[in-house]
Amino acid sequence: MSAGGKQPQPPQSPSPSSLFTLRGSLLTLALLTLASFTLVSLKSLRPSAAAAAPVKLSPSFDSSLKLSSDGAAAGGEDLSDIYHLPEVFRLNYAAMERDFRVFIYPDGDPNTFYQTPRKLTGKYASEGYFFQNIREGRFRTDDPDRAHLFFIPISCHKMRGKGTSYENMTVIVQNYVDSLIVKYPYWNRTLGADHFFVTCHDVGVRATEGVPLLIKNSIRVVCSPSYDVGFIPHKDVALPQILQPFALPAGGNDVENRTRLGFWAGHRNSKIRVILARVWENDTELDISNNRISRATGHLVYQKRFYRTKFCICPGGSQVNSARIADAIHYGCIPVILSNYYDLPFNDILDWRKFSVILKESEVYNLKQILKNISDAEFLQLHENLVKVQKHFQWNSPPVRYDAFHMVMYELWLRHHVIKY
Hints:
Elements: H1 16-44, H2 86-99, E1 102-104, H3 125-136, E2 140-141, E3 149-151, H4 156-161, H5 166-183, H6 186-190, E4 195-199, H7 203-206, H8 212-216, E5 219-222, E6 237-238, E7 260-265, H9 271-280, E8 286-289, H10 301-307, E9 309-315, H11 323-330, E10 334-338, E11 357-359, H12 367-372, H13 376-389, H14 404-416
C-alpha cells in the first residue's frame, strides 16, 4: 500500500498495436539497409570508374600519388581505365604501403617444408616468389602485436618436390597448424580469420582439408580459385599462376605484327580443351593445336606465336587456372578466358573486360565469330589496356611497386579490414 492509500499498479505489457508499430519500424529499417547495400553493390559493378564520386584525401595521404588531369599518378603510373575504382585503389594502396604488417610464424625446419621457397622458376614460381618476398620485404614484422595478419609458412610445392603423397600432405598441414594453435595465442583470437596460407600447386588446396577452420575462416591464397571447389571469393585470394622467367621480352605496341586471329596449343587434359581442339583444330584463321608444340620444330616457337596473334585462347586445364593467361598478358596477346567458375586474379581491383575477352565454356562453338565481331578499334583499346596491366602480372626479387607481389599484398590488406576481434 502506498502513502496515498492507492495500491501500485502492475507493469503493463505492450499493446498489440505498439508491438505491430515496433515490428513495422524494424522491418522498414531492415529494408532500407538492404536497399542501401544493394545500391552500393550495383555501383561497384558498373563497368566504368569515371562516374565514381571523388574521395576526400586524408592528411596522411602521400601527395606524390595524386592523379594528373589524364588519370595518371604523379609518379608515372597510369591508374585509370583498367581499374574498377582507381581513386579508391590509389588511396588504399598508399595506406597499405605505409601501415600493413605481417607476422611470419618462425616454426618449422627450412630444410623440409617450411619458411623458404623450393625454387623461383616453373609454373609454380608464384608460391616461391611470395615466400621469398614476404620474408625480405617491408611488410614483415617480428612483433606479433603490430601484425594485421599472420602467415602460415608451409609450402605444398616443397612437399610435392620431396614426393609427399596427398594423404601425408593433409596430415603435415594439420599437425603444423595444430602446433601453432597450442604454442601461440593468436589463432584463437579469431579462430584463424587473421591467418593466411599460400599455395600455387593445385593439391595445396586439398591439403588444407584436415583443418576445417583453415578452410572456413583463414585466407587461402591459391592459384586454383574455382567457385565449385570451396574457394570463397570475399575471403580467399586468387594467386596468379605465372611461369617465370619469361623466355622473351614483353610484347606491346606491336599490333601490326598480329596477323593471326587466335592461338592455342596444349594438352587436352580437360573437357573444354578436348572440345576446343575437336571443333577448331583444322580452322584456317584460328591456330589451334591438339598437343604441345615440340621443341624440335624450332627455338621458342610456342612463345613466338604469342607475338603474331591477336587473341590467345586460355581454356581451363585440370583446374580452372592456367599459366597461359599470364603468358598471353606478358607477350601482348589478348587473353580469351574460356573457363567457368574462375575467380580471376585481382578481379575486384582490375576490370578484366577492359583487357581480355571472358567467355563461358559453352561459347566455344561460336569462338571464331565472337572474336571476328570485335572491331579493330575495340581490339586496339584492349591491347593498349593489356600493356598497362603487364606490371601486375610480373614477379620481381626484390619486389617493385604494383608488381604481382604487391597486388597480392593489397588483396590481403583489403581482407584484413573485415576481421573483427
